[in-house]
Amino acid sequence: MNVLLLGPPGAGKGTQGMRLAKTLGLPKFSTGDLLRDAVARGTSLGRQAKTVMEAGDLVSDAIILGVVAEELHAPYAAEGVIFDGVVRTIAQAEGVREMLADRGQAMDAVLFLDVADDEILARLAQRRTQEARPDDDPAAIQRRLSAYREQTAPVLAWYEERGPVHRIDGTGAVDEIQNRLLTALGQ
Ligand code: ADP
To answer: What is the model's pTM?
Structure first.
């Protein structure tokens, strides 16, 4: 089963994705984590992505689709993946659909974690005090939110035109949100 988690930065995709992966026994694939790891290791991918990420902008579709192709070819991804923050533009949605179709699969469930703007800003400010993410500074947060509104919000509509999208209230206790997600998945 392939599951896509969509939502603004700070919506809880990482936290919930990890829990879903454990419960469903599927690998979680986060382009954000993968890119941060590449930056930390100073690989060629990391060097290409570093400045863009720190500014709060989106890494190019070509780079992301290359990374997705590689990930989907890994043997552990054969039975499906939890996509966390992977699809952020329409071009990525189309690319991922083709790659899944090539192996006879589809995005089986799309879960949108809905969190209001003021709550998002509060969460990101809070995270800044706990993790030293360079893209959690105020200017980068603004750019990440605009990238989300301009490029990622349309992805939600793209999926809605093609099938059901579950809109999940992303506020409340972490366990409660997890239960909402599992219920939406019929688990
Ligand atoms: P957030 O949930 O705050 O957006 P992530 O950790 O998921 O944080 O991503 C951090 C950064 O990595 C993004 O701001 C962007 O620069 C880059 N990134 C991650 N995934 C993608 C993607 N699918 N397309 C483009 N850029 C991406």
So the answer is: 0.94
